Each structure stands twice: as structure tokens, then as C-alpha cells.
Structure prediction request, 146 residues.
Amino acid sequence: MAGALQGIRVLDLTSVVMGPMATQILGDLFLYQQVRAILVQRTTDEWLAFCRDNAIPATPVVTLEELLAEQPVITHPLAGNYRHIRPGARLAATPMRASRPAPLPGQHNHEVLKEVGYSDDDIDDLLTRGVLRSLGSHMQARPGVG
Prediction:
């Protein structure tokens, strides 16, 4: 705690620490010091195993590259391989699965436009005039057609 007190002096935080929050701040500094002394006794992997064994939600802090490397590679029938980004929360009772490949850009244009009131003829006209252009439009101009 001596280091923390020195930091308070160097950063000129004495007015904060002497104010109404002083007890809480010093208590927090003491708590962090105690926790730090405990945490250094095990490796990150050991702490993660401890948390897993005791049903404590925990995950390591990783870089973006490490996070992406953990994601499974899925093969899309037209687009090829890509990394499937799994949800952050993984629930044992309701696991999420990729039931179909990710849609291509615009693949669901027809369905979406129908939901907001466009007719099949209006949608076909938009496709013909090039208003709708997408990687997926050639797959499905109309459900059951093309």
C-alpha cells in the first residue's frame, strides 16, 4: 500500500483521498493489494481451471488475433471458407449452432421486400433495372424461381 500512497502524493490526489471517499479509496487499494497477492500464486490457466471447476464465469483476456484464431472455420457453399464468430455467451442448456451458411449479400432481398409490402412484379422490376444488385440475387430472384 506504500506504493499506492506514493502515487496519490505524486499525482496530487490528496484532496480526493482526504475527502469523503477517502475510506472507500483506501479500502479499495487495500483490497486490490490483497487480491493481487493471491492471484500471483497461480498461472492464468490454473485460475481458469479453478473458475471452471467452481462454476465461476471467467475467460482469458486475448488479442483480436487470438480471438479470431479460436473461431471455427466453416465452408460456405459459394463463398468458400470463413471464420464463424461464435456468441460471447455460451449456454450449456441452449447451445447455439450454425444451422445454415451465412447468407450472401442481398440473398434475402426478395423476402425482406415482400415483408415491407413490395409485390413480386415490383421486386422483379428492381432487379431488371439493376436497382437491386447482390451476390445472392442470382440465387433467388423469387422463392422457388431461378
Confidence is low (pLDDT under 50) at residues 137-146. The longest helix spans residues 22-39. Residues 103-146 form one domain.
